[in-house]
Amino acid sequence: MKKSSVFQTAVVIGVVLASQITYAADSEAMGEVVVTATRSATPIEQVGSTVYVVTAKEIEQKQKQTVAEILETIPGVTVTRNGGIGGQATSVYLRGGEARHTLVLLNGIPLNDAASLDNAYDFSRFNSDSIERIEVLQGSQSPLYGSKAVGGVINIITKKSSKQEVIARAEAGSFNTFKEGISFSGGGDKLQYLIDLSQFNSHGITVQNNSLNKDGFRSSSITASASLTPDRNTDIDVFLKNQVSTADIYSASENQYSNIHETTLGLNASKSLLEGRWTPQFSLGQNHITREMPVNPYRYESKSNRYSFTNILRLASSHTTTIGFEETQEESLSAQKQADIRSAFIQDSFSPIPNLYLSAGGRIDDHDLFGSQTTYRATIKLNLESIQSSIRGSYGTGFKAPSLYQLYLPTTTYPPFGDYPTYIVSGNSKLEPEKSATWDIGIEKEFPTQSAKISMTYFHNSYKDLINFDETYLAQQNTILGTYLNIKHAKTQGLESSLKNKLTESSSVSITHTYTMTDDGQGNELLRRPKHQFNISLDNRISHKLSIGAELSYVGTRYDIAPGSSTVKAGSYYIVNVASSYDISKSIKIYARLNNLLDRTYQNTYTYNNPGIAAYVGLKASF
User: Is residue 260 classed as helix, strand or coil in its secondary structure?
Assistant: First the structure.
């Protein structure tokens, strides 16, 4: 580590500690319950894993419009997007791992794209409408969730409501951006339903300097859910999310655009038996994604099915045992390739003495292409009530099978676009699965008299047989030859610091900082992983009707790919956003926000432009 990096980290942490201001997502308050960490509702003070939760209240308060905007404020999370306003490729990295190392769930149903380059999920289309909460689980979670969860899990949980209500919303702003939506909810003790319709249109900005036109984005979506409770021991939930979107593609020669259609279906059912000692859970779901570009014709289509049967056993007051069986089918319909995985897993969570919580578990995955893979995980959480502190730690292993694209892509030529040359790429059927070993240790400290809390976590992730896209640049032909190879080893490690303080009854401040070091096994940093990320947010409710908030986000230098396949060091940047809302009445609210208040020119991903200062106003009414 360079001396300057050590100094910068020490300064940031020192200021944070000295201020005695603490941050934690609202979910980290004692008594909060999370479901992703153990696959069943568990008080967060009993969870040894690092988990962050963002609630619907926080999303609305900060006026976050997309899931990506929400995630980039969380410690240990890096978001990269290919510029623009919606529709451009958006990746999420947890603790310096690859985007494909994150399993993305919608109400527990996997969303990762089986036909994409590496199975990573593209967050560019996912808006924040109808989201109740997002749980981000850091570190390898393969023992509970299988392949793809080698770096962590993001579980997006949608709203439920039995309140008879209609909510209408409308928004307009810069770059000819318009957003409309309406939701209907109702029901009673036994049946609840919610239907949400939304539409988004923006002319956008010029993503790359040599693009012919502005790169706009248009999207329409419907989210529907129903919850049936025939008796107090039975819960049945069904949901649907369907989204159709069109994104303009930056091009120097012609107008191009891509159409994307994504449909997610899910059913989750549970029954409490033997006075709560045994709770069987059944889940099935499907995610279907179609991506096509009519002008420069291509079409990718994927379908993922998952069937799961889980048993939650509480045979003793201090033990909760989870035993489950799962089958996952991934199919690239465009390539006519498929992979099947059958799995069995077990985890025991127990408390041998008061305030000490342990868990241990393992999983066997039978992959039809790569045989049996075994992973395991253990966690510890110790609550020191006398000093309002806690210590937690975890260790886990994971594996990630190569994507169907990486394995079977036939030799394909992609014409030049923007500043990039011709690409000739091919798959590699001899690839091996990636494997990981991750561990972390964290501390939390509360300051009750100051309504403050601090959380710090050190993490260390090792990857074996990491799959990398290997490129050879032919200068005379302005062409890149590329294929996929397993590299020997990669490592990421760092420190997450998160703080929050309630300044008064109506105002609060939060600070997060992530320091990340990466090594690709050859002494080079992994691409698009900044060493430093910093976020500070101030929220103030000036009166019972008026609230205002401000946020500063900083992203440090990182390495990226430049045209011609060379590596370039991208500059750091910071942006400031402000947001305000006013309650005209109990049922009508107006709101406004300014993004990039200082009109900074920056590129989140090298050569891709981001919007300058932008203003938006909106109205929300309930009936």
Answer: strand
Element holding 8 (H helix, E strand): helix 3-19
Euclidean distance between CA atoms 389 and 455, whole angstroms: 10
Q: Measuring CA to CA, how many Å separate 583 from each of 444, 446, 546, 593?
A: 36, 33, 7, 15
C-beta separation of 345 from 326 below 8 A: yes
Q: Can you list the alpha helix ranges (DSSP code H) found in 72-214?
A: 142-145
Quote the pTM value. 0.91
Tell me the C-alpha distance between 381 and 393, whole Å: 7
Would you state the torsion angle of the CA atoms of residues 91, 93, 99, 105, taken in this order, to the nearest 10 degrees?
-90
SS3 252: coil
Q: Which two tokens stand for residue 286?
A: 């499907």
First to last CA, the chain: 57
- The full 3-state SS of 386-425, as one line of letters, equals HHCEEEEEEEEEEEECCCHHHHHCCCEEECCECCECEEEE
Contact criterion met (CB below 8 Å) for 163 and 143: no
CA 37 to CA 43: how far, in whole Å?
10
pLDDT by residue (tens digit) across 119-153? 999 999 999 999 999 999 999 999 999 989 999 99
Query: CB within 8 A of 375, min separation 6: which ones?
Result: 140, 142, 143, 362, 363, 365, 396, 397, 398, 399
* Residue-wise pLDDT tens digits, 264-308: 999 999 999 999 999 999 999 999 999 998 776 778 899 999 999
CA 553 to CA 411: how far, in whole Å? 41
CA–CA gap between residue 326 and residue 324 (Å, rounded): 7
Residues 6+ apart with CB under 8 A from 311: 278, 279, 280, 281, 322, 323, 324
